[in-house]
Specification:
This protein is an alpha/beta fold and about 240 residues long. The chain folds into 2 domains: about 90 residues, Elongation Factor Tu (Ef-tu), domain 3 (Beta Barrel), CATH 2.40.30; about 100 residues, Nucleotide-binding domain of ferredoxin-NADP reductase (FNR) module (Rossmann fold, 3-Layer(aba) Sandwich). Helix content is about 20%, strand content about 35%. It contains 5 helices and 16 strands.
Length: about 240
C-alpha cells in the first residue's frame, strides 16, 4: 500500500446520484478484488474509502461511488485531467477459489463484486450475480456483469425492474442453487445472506480514519468478543466470523 497521485480519465454520472471515476494509477497493478482505496478529496481532511470496482488495465482502475454527503459531492465535481491523491490498495479482498460462485450485491456494495466476478470467470468458473437496488433508476453495472458472462438477476424494492423485493427474494424466485456466496451491501442484506448461507464471505463497511489498521476507528466484534479492524483485517470476512 502506498499513496500516489492518480490522473482522472473520466468522471461521469451513470445512474441516480451514482458516478463512475476512471483513474490512471500504477496501484492498479497491485489491486486484488474486494480491496479499496482511500481517496483524498480536495478540501477534506479524512480520506473517503471507495472499493475498486474494476481493474481495466495495468495502470487503470474504475471506482463507482454514490453521492451521499459533502465528500462524495466534491468528488463528483472533479474533472477529467485533474489529479487525486489515492492511498491503497487496502484491506483483504475476496478470495478467488477454484469453484463456481454466486455474488450478491446491494446498492453501492455491487461495485467490488464486478472485479471479483471477472477473476472467477477468468479462471473458467461460472458466476451468478444477484444485484439489488431500491429502484430501476439506481440500478448499476447490470450490463457489465452480463458482458462478463454472468447469469445476472436483479431485485428492486419497488418492483420497477426484476424481482420485487430483496436479493433473497430474487434468489428464491429464480430457485438459484449455488451455495458458495460472496456478498457486499447494506448491513440488513449481509445479515440476511449470513442467515441463508454458511459458505462464503461478506464485505463490511465502517467509518474509517487511517484505513491501515492503526487508529482502531473501524473496529467490529467477532463471535468470541475479540476486536477486528474492518480496514486491515477486512473488509472481507468469512460468513459467521463477525457479529453483524
Ligand atoms: C471499505 C469501504 C468501501 C466502500 N466502497 C464504496 C464504493 O465502492 N462506492 C460507494 O459509493 N461507497 C463506498 N463506501 C462508502 C463511502 O466510503 C461513503 O459513502 C463516503 O465515505 C461518504 O463520504 P461523504 O463525505 O460523501 O459523506 P459524509 O456522510 O459527509 O461523510 C462524513 C464522514 O463519514 C464517513 N462515511 C460516511 N458514510 C460512510 C460509509 N457508508 N462507510 C464508511 N464511511 C462513511 C466519510 O468517509 C466521512 O469521513 C465504502 C466504504 C468502505 C468502508
Ligand atoms: S480506520 Fe484506522 S484502524 Fe481501521
Amino acid at each position: 500500500m502506498r499513496t500516489e497521485q492518480a490522473l482522472i480519465k473520466e468522471n461521469t454520472l451513470i445512474a441516480k446520484d451514482t458516478w463512475k471515476m476512471v483513474l490512471e494509477t500504477t496501484l492498479a497493478g497491485e489491486a486484488e478484488c474486494g480491496q479499496f482505496v482511500q481517496v483524498q478529496v480536495p478540501d477534506f481532511y479524512l480520506r473517503r474509502p471507495v472499493s475498486i470496482c474494476r481493474v481495466i488495465a495495468e495502470d487503470r482502475i474504475v471506482l463507482v461511488y454514490k453521492v451521499v454527503g459533502e465528500g462524495t459531492k466534491r468528488m463528483s465535481e472533479m474533472k477529467t485531467g485533474e489529479s487525486v491523491d489515492l492511498f491503497g490498495p487496502l484491506g483483504h479482498g475476496f478470495p478467488v477459489e477454484e469453484r463456481n460462485v454466486m455474488v450478491i450485491g446491494g446498492g453501492v456494495g455491487v461495485p467490488p463484486l464486478l472485479e471479483t466476478a471477472s477473476r472467477y470467470i477468468a479462471k473458467g468458473h461460472q458466476v451468478t450475480a444477484v444485484l439489488g437496488f431500491n429502484d430501476a433508476g439506481g440500478m448499476i453495472l447490470k450490463d457489465e456483469f452480463e458482458a462478463l458472462g454472468c447469469q445476472t438477476y436483479i431485485a428492486t424494492m419497488d418492483g420497477s425492474y426484476g424481482t420485487k423485493g430483496t436479493v433473497i427474494d430474487a434468489i428464491n424466485a429464480n430457485d438459484l442453487k449455488e451455495t458458495f456466496v460472496l456478498s457486499c451491501g447494506p448491513l440488513p442484506m449481509l445479515k440476511a445472506v449470513s442467515e441463508k448461507y454458511t459458505d462464503g464471505f461478506v464485505s463490511l463497511e465502517a467509518r474509517m480514519a487511517c484505513g491501515m489498521g492503526a487508529c482502531m476507528g473501524c473496529v467490529v466484534k467477532d463471535q468470541e468478543g475479540g476486536s477486528l479492524r474492518v480496514c486491515a483485517d477486512g473488509p472481507v470476512f468469512a460468513i459467521g466470523k463477525v457479529v453483524l
